[in-house]
């Protein structure tokens, strides 16, 4: 996969040299190219922002440098083996939430270009213009506002890169992750343990050393449900009833959940105090 990042803070992307992403780059599984947006400015001050039309506080990123940068990146692909158009990812708090499902979708694309903004964002015409020829995703990494999109690029790149074939040592290891499409789609992973078997008088759950794979798998799934009920009840409400087995239903009932007429689980109503 090729990833281009256009930013006014190239040094912010230094973490892409370390750990999993850094190793994937060193092995040639990931080709990351970081570009300084100011290279596509033509004034003495390398200006990338201007005042917003309509007034108001803050500045807006000018369309010209972004247009030149994205055109240059597109042209650079023409000579490579990449497809003619990359997929543009624009981090913004007003985008679609970044989820594991979207990470899976993006991991199947051969070429991503990230456009992390600063100030109040990028002049809208840039996104609209490229959406006419490229696939564009405006993506939010959470319901909060950062000072810039570079941290979001780090988040999205790491989530996508670990899904690329051969990047994780064990290809199976993301199958049981929280949110993994399939059996874990709306579940959080439960607790994990390692040696020693006793630490500060605390034992590990006995089932984990039983050697009984079926019981271990069931225990893990129960724990996943318990944790999801406690921390993300909204995910339980989204669970497809057809994906739940008999024990899942029993456990949810034990945890105080009730099945509605559509089969979906919801929290039992609290008794109204008189
Ligand atoms: C100060 S923010 C602009 C926020 C904008 N005024 C708004 O309220 O939607 C500057 C840039 O940081 C990035 N950013 C901030 N919060 C983000 C989030 N939750 N997810 C993704 N990117 C974010 C985006 O690139 C954004 O354009």
From TrEMBL:
Description of how the protein assembles with itself and partners: Homodimer.
Predominant location: cytoplasm
Subcellular location: Cytoplasm
PANTHER family cross-referenced by the UniProt entry: TRNA (GUANINE-N(1)-)-METHYLTRANSFERASE (PTHR46417)
CDD domains, per the entry: TrmD-like
UniProt-listed SUPFAM superfamilies: alpha/beta knot
Magnesium listed as a keyword: no
Family, per entry: Belongs to the RNA methyltransferase TrmD family.
Stretches assigned to the tRNA methyltransferase TRMD/TRM10-type domain: 1-237
InterPro entries: Alpha/beta_knot_MTases, tRNA_m1G_MeTrfase_C_sf, tRNA_m1G_MeTrfase_TrmD, tRNA_m1G_MTases_N, tRNA_MeTrfase_TRMD/TRM10
Name of the protein in question: tRNA (guanine-N(1)-)-methyltransferase
Domain of life: Bacteria
One of the GO BP terms on file: methylation
UniProtKB keywords: Cytoplasm, Methyltransferase, S-adenosyl-L-methionine, Transferase, tRNA processing
GO MF annotation list: tRNA (guanine(37)-N1)-methyltransferase activity
Organism of derivation: Streptantibioticus ferralitis
Reactions this protein catalyses: guanosine(37) in tRNA + S-adenosyl-L-methionine = N(1)-methylguanosine(37) in tRNA + S-adenosyl-L-homocysteine + H(+)
Protein role: Specifically methylates guanosine-37 in various tRNAs.
EC number: 2.1.1.228
Positions of S-adenosyl-L-methionine binding: 141-146
